[in-house]
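Annotators were shown the component list below and the corresponding predicted structure, then asked to write short factual statements about the assembly.
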Amino acid sequence: MSNKIDITLNVNGRPEALQLEPRVTLLDALREQLGLNGTKKGCDQGQCGACTVHIDGERVLACLTLAAQVEGREVTTIEGLSKPGQKAHPVQAAFLEQDAFQCGYCTPGQIMSAVSCIREGHAGSDEEIREYMSGNLCRCGAYPHIVAAVRQAAEAVQ
Amino acid sequence: MRDFTYQRPASLAEARNAAALPGAMLLAGGTTLLDLAKCGVAAPETVIDISHLPGLASIEVGLQGARIGALAKMSAVADNAGIIREFPAVSEALWQSASAQLRNMATIGGNLLQRTRCAYFRDPSGFPACNKRNPGSGCSALGGVTRNHAVLGASPSCIATNPGDLAVALVAFDAQVELGARTVALEDFLLTPGDHPERETDLRPGEIIATVSIPASVAARRSTYLKVRDRQSYEFAAASAAVGIEFEPDGRTIRDLRVALGGVATRPWRARNVEDALKGKVLEPDAVRRASLLAMEGAIAQADNHYKIELAPRVVARALLKTGELA
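Structure shown to annotators:
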């Protein structure tokens, strides 16, 4: 294809120069070009939440975002949540402690979403957590433990 | 997804010019456009990314009402203190829509232009016939699985439901869309299918929604959005109602009333017959339930959606009683 464009993405605090077709989603750019495959491709149509990342600190779906669209913005993926060698992010620690997963495929998206859910102030009760985490599906059905992990992390952060 | 060229206009005027060219489509939040491009429903040749345009995301709430920039995110409007105070139904419609991630992406302007969730519309390879996608090709939904299709405002050409929540609350409170040179009532801006289901809005080539305005009213201040669906969250409405009540000084007699329905019609459905039947009356359960039945005047069921004709008036009645604090 001759239609490639040059863009620079800021991912986890690092500038990344990329050459890609305009139709390439942020999700595919992260996984295929930058090797950041912690962000998962589930449904690829905005319904499952597995591809949740943060743009300028807010949770969004990487599968419905063009890479070109986020040039000039800050992208944070699960790989950027805690620095290598440092302690896990409190939400990551809570997911481990509460065993908030079975297969683990939805987990990076759940964690990125949970970090935002707490930051937004929408983790005040189990009911509120369920409402504001409803964009992250878990086919294993680990929801009770996910809610417990978000609640624990929310208490730890506050 | 077919490839396209990508442009970032520097101003609204530049965006309008670019958007007027054949094959061009606007990108704001991207939640509809990229979804439909992946389904094969949308195939833009040029994507005009307006998400970086400055000054179009403000939310102002004052004595006259609210002015919301078209690029304001659903989440920002849902959580805005002025909107929550003056237009609770608008905030409730928003936070009950989609998911937190989608609400952080999707814009108010884009939300009003979202396309139907009709499964036949969204599957061009499986169902080539769709008058909305391909005028004159027929309607695959007629005689198909119609559980989520419209009972009001449909035509022999199209029975697709308008899936929006926000638009229902906005239509109830007389919101307008500002398109640059002209301003249109949202209720007139969103069209019923008639013989031309491919025409969904009154948006003309080169026009872009710049601002959504909602006039202040006592009824909007005392309002509710009630959404009933197959699962409790992250789902489109089976039936929904936006209602607002202004009482006379006695606190019981209805002076002004607003009722609009979602999930049951081809566009957000203002039920003036329900409003008229209750204005001047005392709000009490029997009268409310009787009047709510009027909302389904003219309803036509398909094979699988009779339930909406029973459900929707109950949703209206419950919303009214809750808003009047009788339920």
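Statements collected:
1. The first strand of chain A starts at residue 5 and ends at 11.
2. Strands of chain A lie at 5-11, 14-20, 52-55, 58-61, 74-76.
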